[in-house]
Amino acid sequence: MKDAKMGINDSSLNGKLARMNGFMEINYSLKNFSAGMRFETYLPPLVGYDTRFNGYGVPNWFLNYKNDKIEITAGNFYDQFGNGLSLRTWQDWTLGYDNSLRGLRIKFSPVDGITLKGVWGVQRNFWDPYTSGSRGIVKGADLDIFLNDLFSGLRNAKTKLSFGGSFVSDYQSGKTTDILVDTLVYTLKLPENIATYSGRVNLNAGGVNFYTEYAHKINDPSALNNFIYKDGNGLFSTLSYSQKGLGIIGALKIIDNMSFKSNRLVTDNQLNINYDPDITKQHTYALAAMYPYGTQPEGEFAYAGTVTYTFKRNTAIGGKSGLTFAVNFSKVNALSKDSVYESSINGMAMNRAGTIGYKTNFFNPGKEVYYQDFNIEVDKKFSKKWKGIFTYLSQVYNMEVIQGHATDYGLIHSNIGVADLTYNITYVYSIRAEFQGLWTIQDKGNWGAGLIEFTIAPKWFFSMQDQWNYGNSDIEQQLHYYLVSVGYTYNTSRISLSYGRQRAGILCVGGVCRYVPAATGLSLTINSSF
Amino acid sequence: MTVPLVVLLFSSCDKIKAPYAMAKYGHITDTVVEWDDTVKMVKRVLLEDYTGHTCQNCPAAAAIAHNQDAYYKGKLIVLAVHAGYYAIPGTGNFDVDFRTTAGEQWNTDFNIIAYPSGMIDRKVFNGQQVLGSSEWVSDIASIINQTPSLNMAMINTYDSNSRTVNTVIYAQFLQSLSGSYSITVCVMEDNIISAQDSSNTVIQNYNFKDVLREAINGTYGEILTNSVNPSLTYLGRFSSSISTAWVAKNCWILAFVSKSDTKEILQAIKQKVIK
């Protein structure tokens, strides 16, 4: 509905006062066979969802046969090789993301411990039917070997080792294309077959787990990388240790020109063949998630670490009920890149179309900071009735790189505090309150947020929340973003009704983001599974 | 089933070798440039000599053109366009082909049916645009000392490894003019030795000069401007390949600006590919 303070008027609404996203998924199985379909409707899509979703249909269906050795799927399927550096197809309803493959998938296990997968198909792109040139044909194979299952002598070993490799190729027709570079039109030679291959190892010994995956992609000139011919490289590694009461995990991710799409001209979230895993912490509290990180497949150097420790009950720090303490740090920098000599201009160039693009020392981070997050969370149960979660965050956010908005203030430095308190009145009634504050002198300034939620277990909840941009330098924009909600759960069905304002921002899931515009109105959500 | 799949996948991999890109044709921008006084106020006339290697009267016309070229010391530019019947490759020493797509199109569009024929800045003289060689001397003289309405300058940079010449052309109108103006950029080659028929005999080692080899940005070029602004300099950047069949040190880049509708040429300039 209209909201003058938010800039929502008749022109921006354009007559679309009511919108709907909905789907129904039906799966049926009989012995070794199963089949399913998903009907989707967007009439029109909710605010913030791509308008190309407008319409309805059955974008997803499958037929499947599975026995001990082999599994065959025809139709739409989702799959992932390793951590996705070479291939990951997935779907997220809240993000409006679906890059499923439609074709054939075969999974074969000739013996225990060896799994072979093969995929061949084309990706979903909204409602567009596949035509030659609309997008490429994706084919891939993956081999996974779990030694502990392969060799009977290792079955009961405490040390577990697996390794695997994959090869993914995308065919897009078109041997040349014309582009404009510095006022000259160039004809580029294009690779019609682009391949990515990867290898991975996973070692688990005692409480230690080590995983590493490396992927290499051959030349893939595209609109996203400005049509350069540099090969791509990706490395993802984690090392963790866990024992009762203690968990430590570290992660390293280096990505160099690893965007891999089945249409070289696409620059948005569509038609990704692979996946750039996000190792920053995904926050759920509203102000902590104000500035979420979106992965940069063209180049990033990221590392992160988390230590979680539980102080036992009846200790000085743990108190009567114990206390869990978690500290997390993550940082993402640009990749270090150097320009290269280009004979056509008799000079050095960086990312110039029609050239190798740049050179990089893969293990060197660049100087530019994309994102940094340091946070401490304390989870404490005070008594049978009271418990609390207290979080402090210090974040650094590069708006220009992550959201593409040029700013005059450079990086956003913010401090965030969250107190989340729950009081169990009885076993049935409970009340939860959140108090949040975000302090920054950049972007829109300081925010305060509060939420109060009343729950009648297991069926009802009522909540009121508000986010207030009290620190905005424009007094007219020191708005309250209020929201009242009520919800009812019955078995596996849930219905909720909300009314209020949604502030503009970005929503990220696993490093993939979409823009969420400002909106005011009533929303009804119904979820049911059966 | 798995092995053929793996073999098929591993063959699905196109590694492109450099060079990755080839410049296609030019593009125009505008800016303000400080001009060197020495390049100002020079009117250069373009004489197009439509000819062919089996045209018996053509060597005589070519001689007139070259004499005029020498007389006007750089103010006249000659372009030999091999087109039409007498340019068709023959047998023996006449099996070479000097024709070009642009030359053939001009030959057709300007309705050239007799050889040798010429055009001078593609202007109309006494009701005629296509001129016999006997009219060239007087028609050239009537316009060559006119005040130019356009200044042009050209810089060529040649890369012998890739056989690519990068050309920057500067053009500034000296007065406000209405209408749309085009720029056409060509490659010419001198000192091509081949057979030429003449009125007396076949000259086996005839020296062909000013031969049109290619119009690199299209038969009628591309739009320089649709709205002349005399305070601006129009920059055109072009990149052209020098074929291995041509001798780079004998090649020139020729550029001329013409009215887009009438094709009348305002100014021309040429520079050697290699200084």
What's the SSE blueprint?
The complex is a heterodimer of chains A (530) and B (275).
Chain A: H1 10-13, E1 21-30, E2 33-42, E3 55-66, E4 70-77, E5 91-92, E6 97-98, E7 101-108, E8 114-123, E9 137-146, H2 147-150, E10 160-171, E11 176-181, E12 184-189, E13 193-205, E14 208-217, E15 232-243, E16 246-256, E17 299-311, E18 323-338, E19 340-342, E20 347-349, E21 359-381, E22 386-397, H3 399-402, E23 412-424, E24 429-439, E25 447-456, E26 460-468, E27 480-490, E28 493-502, E29 505-509, E30 512-516, E31 519-528
Antiparallel strand pairs in A: 1-2, 2-3, 3-4, 4-7, 5-6, 7-8, 8-9, 9-10, 10-13, 11-12, 13-14, 14-15, 15-16, 16-17, 17-18, 18-21, 19-20, 21-22, 22-23, 23-24, 24-25, 25-26, 26-27, 27-28, 28-31, 29-30
Chain B: H1 2-10, E1 21-25, E2 27-31, E3 45-51, H2 58-72, E4 76-82, H3 101-109, E5 117-120, H4 136-143, E6 150-159, E7 164-173, E8 181-189, E9 192-197, E10 202-208, E11 211-215, E12 222-225, E13 233-241, E14 251-259, E15 265-272
Parallel strand pairs in B: 3-4
Antiparallel strand pairs in B: 2-13, 3-5, 6-7, 7-13, 8-11, 8-12, 8-14, 9-10, 14-15
